[in-house]
Amino acid sequence: MKICLIGDFSTPDEARKVMARYMLRELSKTNEVLPINIPDIYKIHVWEEFKSFSPDIIHYIPGASTFSFVITKIMKIYSKNAKTVMCSTLNAFHGFSHGFYYGVSSLSKYLIPLIKADVILVQSKQPEIIFRDLKCNIKFFVCSGVDTQKFTPASENEKKELREKYGVAREKFIVLHVGSVRKWRNVGVLNEISNISDVQVVIVGRNSTKFEKDIALELEKNGCKIINEYVPKIEELYALSDCYVFPTVDPTGSIDIPLSVLEAMSTNLPVISTKFGGLENIFEEKDGFLFTDSKMNFVEQITKIRESNTQVRTRDLVIPYSWENIAIKLSQFYKDLLH
């Protein structure tokens, strides 16, 4: 099967770049794959290579917006016979209050029935409703995955060594959050968590996205440790931690199934999360995975985890979403689509 993957294959410092790289790696094991880097989409030689490749499947990874529909429609016409697939990783249809990109996408979404892809893969209820109303062919499919060989549980000795390496308190209960230091990520919750006795909050920011200094200063004032740079061995930050929290509520704050939650689970950390995006569709509360909906509930849930004898088995819950398994399911989906 010949597959053209469209995405951003640069430094994996953001979720959709990680997705593009892993989909390319895993699908290439059993298929012939042509990657097209979005920044190169306007170059003539890219289109010449694409036409020569003559794909069976064109899969646009980063998200379903009016721009991405235009691109895939042109590529479908240019390829003549290819089927087009699009991941709805992040709902792009919000007002201008969320930014220019979201506002323009929302205004232009009514063009989508004219340029829609053959199938849109959705991961949560909100985009499912939007695309169904736009008469699109949709399928619930988890496009988010995790490298279960990279993100693995650490022994107590390994935790101590890693805490020394990163300058993290050895004897404290470490609560981790990975993501942009921005108000819309609801990171203010981490101030409340940081006030718990013997708890150290560690935040790994994204240097590829906007950094809100006032929010960061407040977090640091309350004792949070912020690492706002690309960390090549991000798995070590998960490994040194005792718990992971995902406080985001705003639907534009993350992709619908956050990779950081899956990575924490693969490390077998207890996870406390809001009922964000598609998480509630694929996980239920058990084995150290907990949902919450308020600042104080985060504090209560962390206290509960520390004081209870709950056997944490979050790694077992996330194994079905390894990148190997995602690629197997994707390949079968492509075959079904072609036949």
TrEMBL record:
Q: Matching Pfam families, A to Z?
A: Glycos_transf_1
**Which residue positions does the secretion signal occupy?**
none
GO molecular-function term, one example from the UniProt record: glycosyltransferase activity
The protein's matches in CDD domains, at most eight in alphabetical order, are given as: GT4_PimA-like
Where the record annotates domain Glycosyl transferase family, the positions are 159-309
This protein is called what? Glycosyl transferase family 1 domain-containing protein
